[in-house]
Amino acid sequence: LSAQDRAEDAHAIMSYAFNNGLEKTPQRSTAFVKYLCERGEYETALTFTRKLVENTPDNTAFLLLHCDTLCKNNLHKEAAQLLVTKLKAKSLERAANKYESKGNATLAEAIYREVIAKDPEPDQCSESLLKHFLWLGDFYARQGRLDEAEEQYGIALGNKMSPAEHAHSMGLLFYTQEQY
């Protein structure tokens, strides 16, 4: 068999596995998605990861794999909305940091923005939501987007519930901008 024939046979066999319960084996499911993405078959990979998440909604690894696949299909906002819906605050911060460190700043920013968008009244927000303004401010500072960082820190500092550590973040930002 030629290399092309072997690739087509492998694809047919993996597709059969996909349609017959592959989601029950996490390592193989992940390998299949990576295989599809390497072939540039992002839509097929997305169909598979959607099925994984539907069939195993409590599996965080599949959720993150699905979000990665959404991003490969340029569906960053959908990925962020899904993460915000499914993950708790600390997990969201870790997910955003993970995506930022992997070079997907678009998804990291979308995650922070989705959390903040859930509460349209920043003046009335909880301490938990304030942390998201700070995370977004820290994200912007790491990206060198200092004016946007200052705006997010200002929202957090303008709220009476903001802890002293957040004031420290604003001080560091001003120091970075040489406005001390």
Characteristic key phrases:
180 residues, mainly alpha
Describe this structure in words.
The chain is mostly helical and 180 residues long. Helix content is 76%, strand content 0%. It is built from 10 helices and no strands. Helix 6 packs antiparallel against helix 7 and helix 8 packs antiparallel against helix 9. It is elongated, with a radius of gyration of 20 Å. The mean pLDDT is 78.
A few lines on this structure:
With 180 residues, this protein is mainly alpha-helical.
Largest β-sheet summary: none
Task: Output the helix-strand order.
Answer: HHHHHHHHHH
Mean pLDDT: 78
Number of strands: 0
User: Helices and strands: which structural class?
Assistant: mainly alpha
Uncertain runs with pLDDT below 50, 5 residues or more?
none
Helix content: over 70%
How much of the sequence lies in strands comes to under 5%
Radius of gyration (CA) equals 20 Å
Q: Give the overall silhouette.
A: elongated
Count of discrete alpha- or pi-helical segments spanning 4 or more residues: 10
Distance between the termini: 70 Å
